[in-house]
């Protein structure tokens, strides 16, 4: 077990709660958990440690919202996400940590501005989802950000928000998206040495917290109004973008 101070464990527990709630109620909040883990653990180890906890929360999320999935939207995203993952792997090899964070933060702000502009100009799409060009853009950016910083939550939240999904369809489609993407990242994370034995021990301690938080998130989601939900998603995206730019 790595040596972590009491305050560090308190922060990790808070991060674990945020992971669980973000997967079943407040997508985009996961970026806050990424920041917490990176502050307590060595940066590379934090990436692999949080990835396994995200997958655990994904499992509960896809079970909770198994009847609320827009598979057409996921299939539309798949090719672009693969391209984004490849670009992310290349970018990790050539860019500094500071540059990675700032680039993602700026891109997130651009995504928020684009999504809100489409709404204000009444050019939004129907429930079937954004057209293929928008799906390609969001998909590439989502694949890129999830590979380099586990920070695709805000990006994909903006995509599903633009598609005007109801709360549960939003959460169910996002749950399956992240589950499939996170599973695909495991071999790369092992190969890059991001998943470590000390990190696995931390995961074992925090796993029960994540599981409990997914049920808390489900309780919250059942009581969220659509308009309030959308405002929270946008606010969390802006917080995530600001953190990545300023960190």
TrEMBL record:
Subcellular location: Cell membrane
Keyword Transmembrane helix: yes
Family matches, as PANTHER family: MEMBRANE TRANSPORTER PROTEIN YDHB-RELATED (PTHR30269:SF23), TRANSMEMBRANE PROTEIN YFCA (PTHR30269)
Family, per entry: Belongs to the 4-toluene sulfonate uptake permease (TSUP) (TC 2.A.102) family.
Pfam families assigned to the protein according to its UniProt record, in alphabetical order: TauE
Membrane topology: Multi-pass membrane protein
Record protein name field: Probable membrane transporter protein
Organism: Microbacterium fluvii
Transmembrane regions listed in the UniProt entry: 48-66, 73-93, 99-117, 138-162, 200-221, 227-246
UniProt KW keywords: Cell membrane, Membrane, Transmembrane, Transmembrane helix, Transport
């Amino acid at each position: 077990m790595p040596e972590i101070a009491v305050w560090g464990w308190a922060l990790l527990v808070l991060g674990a709660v945020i992971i669980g709630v973000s997967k079943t109620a407040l997508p985009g909040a996961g970026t806050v958990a990424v920041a917490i883990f990176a502050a307590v653990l060595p940066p590379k180890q934090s990436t692999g440690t949080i990835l396994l906890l995200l997958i655990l929360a994904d499992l509960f999320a896809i079970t909770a919202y198994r009847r609320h999935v827009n598979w057409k939207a996921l299939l539309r995203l798949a090719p672009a996400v693969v391209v984004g993952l490849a670009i992310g792997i290349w970018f990790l090899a050539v860019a500094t940590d500071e540059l990675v964070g700032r680039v993602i933060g700026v891109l997130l702000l651009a995504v928020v501005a684009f999504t809100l502009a489409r709404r204000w100009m009444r050019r939004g799409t129907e429930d079937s989802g954004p057209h293929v060009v928008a799906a390609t853009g969001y998909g590439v950016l989502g694949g890129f950000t999830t590979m380099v910083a586990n920070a695709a939550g805000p990006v994909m939240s903006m995509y599903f928000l633009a598609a005007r999904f109801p709360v549960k369809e939003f959460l169910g489609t996002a749950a399956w998206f992240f589950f499939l993407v996170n599973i695909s990242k495991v071999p790369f994370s092992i190969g890059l040495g991001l998943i470590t034995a000390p990190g696995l021990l931390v995961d074992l301690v925090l796993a029960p917290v994540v599981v409990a938080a997914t049920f808390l998130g489900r309780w919250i989601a059942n009581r969220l109004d659509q308009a309030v939900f959308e405002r929270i998603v946008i606010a969390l995206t802006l917080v995530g973008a600001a953190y990545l730019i300023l960190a």
